[in-house]
Design goal:
Length: 165
Amino acid sequence: IFVYDVHHVYVNFSSASPDGMIFWSSSKEGEYIALGLEQSLLKLSWSWSGLIQTIVVPGNPVADGIWHDVSISFPDPMNITVVLDNHLVYTYQHDVENNAALTTNGKFYLGGFPDRVAVANRTRGIFKSSFSGCLSEIAWNNSPAVTDFKKHKGENVKSCALFEL
């Protein structure tokens, strides 16, 4: 079983659709990290050692057709920060001391799942639909950013026209 510790994720996206899963990465043990949109706001969810947290980040709507940068850092799953467009928008700190990292199988599903797997089923209802919009970049930990998605296996991966406002 391949296990991959996740400490940081960065994504640059644009969407005009108010709901949808931007990315999902999980392990067979049930740990996961996920980001999406709900009612035009960012929605972050993670599970670690039986603790499940789901938050909708308050603030300005991001389903506006404008490009947004999201950086999620979690040196451990008890200390999480979310930076949106260079502004700190969310922090989570828990008093439990545990140095275990959040682990996944190393696969990041972008926008949805292969083989027509329903997003609502795979995410246990956390997200109801696939992402509709554009991703220009994703990076995790210290890996180089992915900007050319044609090299990666997936469905509905094509170039993305910029939105006209």
